[in-house]
Specification:
Layout lengths: L1 E6 L8 E6 L9 E10 L2 H7 L16 E7 L11 E4 L30 E5 L3 E3 L6 H4 L2 H14 L8 E5 L3 H12 L3 E6 L2 H9 L4 E4 L6 H8 L5 E6 L6 H7 E9 L12 H6 L3 E4 L5 H14 L5 E6 L3 H9 L6 E5 L1
Parallel strand pairs: 8-9, 8-11, 9-10, 11-12, 12-13, 14-15
Antiparallel strand pairs: 1-2, 3-4, 3-6, 3-15, 4-5, 5-7
This protein binds NADP nicotinamide-adenine-dinucleotide phosphate.
Amino acid sequence: MMRAIRLRAPASLDNLISTDLADPGSPGPGEIRVRLAASSLNFHDYAVVAGLIPSADGRIPMSDGAGTVEAVGEGVTQFIPGDLVVSTFFPEWNDGAPPTSAFTGVPGDGIDGYARSAVVTPQHWFTRVPMGYSAAEAATLTCAGLTAWRALFVDGRTEPGSTVLVQGSGGVSVFALQFAKAAGARVIATSSSDEKLERLKALGADELVNYKAEPAWGAKAMALTDGRGVDTVVEIGGAGTLDQSMVAARVGGHVALIGVLAGFAGPVQTALLMAKNLRVQGLTVGSRQQQLAMIAGIEANGIRPVISDHFPLERLTDAFRHQIANAHFGKIVVDI
Ligand SMILES: NC(=O)c1ccc[n+]([C@@H]2O[C@H](COP(=O)([O-])OP(=O)(O)OC[C@H]3O[C@@H](n4cnc5c(N)ncnc54)[C@H](OP(=O)(O)O)[C@@H]3O)[C@@H](O)[C@H]2O)c1
């Protein structure tokens, strides 16, 4: 037997139940057995456990998982026992266009995730981790890390001299700040907290804007770029922030539409979108090949994730409460 957390119906933070689960056994052909050591919290995981996204009764939550390969099945070529590995968000999306099946195959959403101590999966559901990373560090990459990477370097064209605006100090945004700085970009960082802005500055943010004190932060970003606007906005608010993001963007700029923290739907200034020749591109995390490219980029630049908090798996509910109180900075890790 092994320990796991299951989400019981009706989904809510109070219905995350610690339970015993049958051991997954030995890996079959093409499979690996992974002893999971860490996961990390994403807003997406919260949306599942809070019932904002419907899921099955008994679902094991958490999309991110990292740990050590304990055994490999026949024909496994990518890993050997002892390798540290990290999960992929879309296990069957290797490369090319995004899957059309939305989140049906995503661990912790459409299928069981990694809030458990061991798992047996096809080898391609995991990748290697950056050299020198711990399992806790690796577990931050699956969702938040890869989303930031794709926004800046797959959908965006961030390069030395680019200007990037990041919103708030959560998982995606702090990775975006780190990646953008590593690429030689200038970063305008926003936060609701002056204390967190100082921490963003310590990570390399060039300009700081408190979006509560400065509700017209789009115009502020314009002013900070001498009226030119920013090349890419890492848009994690959604409906409630898109207007300001479009104001902040330069003519021909890019808004990476990632999140829903400030609303799921709302009116769009279509005339502004047109007049500024903007590209607003929605994205859902990334592919396995993009994850491998990110890992190479992390290694080349010596980037380490920012983890503000650790919780043991048995205190997953407390970890989510910490997250929705915005008490974190960067990532919250769950140690398994
Ligand atoms: N499309 C995708 O593939 C994808 C992937 C990952 C995440 N997401 C989405 O991206 C969003 C962020 O995810 P996450 O995991 O990074 O969340 P997170 O770590 O929980 O981030 C929370 C932080 O976001 C900031 N924030 C909240 N409301 C804001 C607002 N109105 N304006 C600016 N900043 C705001 C706050 O920063 P301060 O405390 O500093 O103000 C807050 O601490 C979520 O909506 C999530 O669903 C989407």
